[in-house]
Design a protein that fits this description.
The protein is mainly alpha-helical and 138 residues long. The chain folds into two domains: 43 residues, no CATH class; 75 residues, no CATH class. The protein is built from eight helices and two strands. The chain has a two-stranded antiparallel sheet with strand order 1-2. It is elongated.
């Protein structure tokens, strides 16, 4: 994980951490892989299907959420980008259509949704001159 902090409860036990850090390098390197020693230590506690499987990421069902429980939030964010003059309506509608047709990754549409929601909360608008900066009505 490039930009996050991940804490797992067993590793918060300072006695365990101190013990493992005190092991000779030959013991730590005896088991292959980044987590070889950990896997070996837990081998009799876990079924083989857990420790022998490939690494898998944690994937959120964002596409389904954006079409379901988050649909009104998505629609509002897209509408705000148009109404506030941040993006052309044709462009936003094309993004939406491509997302609905599964030709666009959810992250692309989500970025526009977040932009619209941010602009709404900050009351940002673009003036009629398309070269003018975006400003707040505060």
């Amino acid at each position: 994980m490039a930009v996050s902090l991940e804490i797992r409860v067993p590793f918060l036990d300072h006695a365990l951490v101190e013990y493992v850090l005190g092991l000779p390098a030959t013991v730590k390197k005896k088991y292959p892989g980044v987590k070889g020693l950990l896997v070996e230590a837990c081998r009799d506690l876990l079924p083989a299907s857990v420790y022998d499987r490939s690494k898998a990421g944690f994937v959120l069902p964002m596409r389904q959420w954006m079409r379901g429980p988050l649909a009104s939030f998505v629609d509002e964010g897209l509408r705000e980008t148009i109404e506030r003059g941040l993006l052309p309506e044709v462009f936003v509608n094309e993004l939406r259509a491509n997302f609905q047709g599964e030709r666009l990754h959810w992250t692309r549409l989500w970025a526009v949704v977040v932009l619209g929601q941010y602009a709404k909360r900050r009351q940002l608008v673009r003036t009629p001159d398309e070269n003018s900066p975006i400003h707040s009505h505060n």
